[in-house]
From TrEMBL:
SUPFAM superfamilies: Glyoxalase/Bleomycin resistance protein/Dihydroxybiphenyl dioxygenase. The keyword Lipid metabolism does not apply. This is 3,4-dihydroxyphenylacetate 2,3-dioxygenase. It comes from Dictyobacter aurantiacus. InterPro entries: Glyas_Bleomycin-R_OHBP_Dase, Glyas_Fos-R_dOase_dom, GlyoxalaseI/FosfomycinResist, VOC_core. Pfam families: Glyoxalase. GO terms for molecular function: dioxygenase activity. Residues 6-118, 135-249 form the VOC domain. Keywords: Dioxygenase, Oxidoreductase. The keyword Cell inner membrane does not apply.
Length: 297
């Protein structure tokens, strides 16, 4: 088993690169670090060389999600472990600026995954204008067989289950954050549900809503507080109609041996442990407003 330390970046294909790049720089406030020969844009929202990749293409879609591994294993050892588990991967050198080596593989639904150990750091990837999230937080995907996907992420990549919504929506962590990947059982396949960026606090969520309004990007849902994960959230669509969540105050599990999330006044359970939630308004939004029809696919 390899051990994912954190989500590294997300890569999008877009039919209108200039428009989507303007959204990520002027609205979200990410910093452009590098442009590729084909125009591909690499953007940072922290110290890593890039958190988002935008590539010109003939359709708008998520291309891949990348994870950084801890330094306990080399990429060649990781490739060997994957092969022994029946997972084929390709070792690639200099495939991206800032990442000298990476492994590329697919999950059981055919979603493309990249793994790497080392990445170049930038001095300051936080933009000077825009919303300026503190980090890329998580990605949620539609999958055809959620239990098969869970087994893959647990047994192959070392993720842990934080919570279930009944038996069709799972939240998985690779570090102290409540979730890094979410998987929603669906007839749809190889599609992203949403991508999420973490903000500092509720005050930044409020200012982000004003900034989105200034750029004619209305909220699709929120603000609210999820029951599962307990994060304050808003959702909006980027210019390519990718659903983007901005969140803060997500649950933290700082010690796996203790086995419960850091206590908060808004929790239902004391201590709050990973569990299976009933499909109810309390699980979706503790502040009461349910998602509009079609938002969850």
């Amino acid at each position: 088993m390899v051990h994912v330390a954190k989500i590294g970046h997300v890569a999008f294909h877009t039919t209108n690169l200039d428009r989507l790049l303007a959204y990520y720089t002027d609205v979200l406030g990410l910093t452009l670090t590098t442009r590729g020969g084909d125009g591909t844009a690499y953007l940072s929202c922290g110290v890593d060389h890039h958190s988002v990749i935008l590539t010109p293409a003939r359709e708008n879609r998520l291309h891949h999600v990348a994870f950084q591994l801890d330094h306990s294993v080399s990429l060649r050892d990781a490739a060997r472990q994957l092969h022994e588990a029946g997972i084929e991967s390709e070792l690639m050198s200099d495939a991206q600026p800032g990442i000298p080596e990476l492994l590329q593989l697919s999950d059981p639904d055919g979603n493309l995954i990249q793994l790497y150990v080392d990445t170049e750091h930038v001095s300051n990837g936080f933009g000077g204008t825009g919303i300026v999230p503190v980090k890329l937080g998580h990605v949620a995907m539609y999958v055809s067989d959620v239990k098969k996907i869970v087994a893959f992420y647990q047994q192959i990549l070392g993720f842990r289950v934080s919570d279930w919504l009944e038996d069709f929506f799972v939240f998985m962590r690779c570090n102290i954050d409540h979730h890094t990947m979410n998987f929603l059982q669906s007839k749809r396949k190889n599609e992203m549900f949403h991508v999420a960026f973490e903000l500092r606090d509720w005050a930044q969520v409020q200012s982000a809503c004003d900034w989105l309004n200034k750029h004619h990007l209305p909220l699709a849902w929120g603000p609210g507080r999820h029951g599962i994960g307990h994060n304050i959230f808003t959702y909006h669509y980027d210019p390519d109609h990718n659903l983007v969540e901005l969140f803060t105050e997500i649950d933290i599990l700082s010690n796996e041996d203790i086995g419960y999330f850091e206590p908060r006044p808004w929790h239902e359970d004391f201590p709050q442990k990973p569990k299976v939630w009933k499909d109810s308004p309390e699980a979706v939004n503790k502040w009461g407003v349910l998602p509009p029809a079609g938002l969850m696919g």
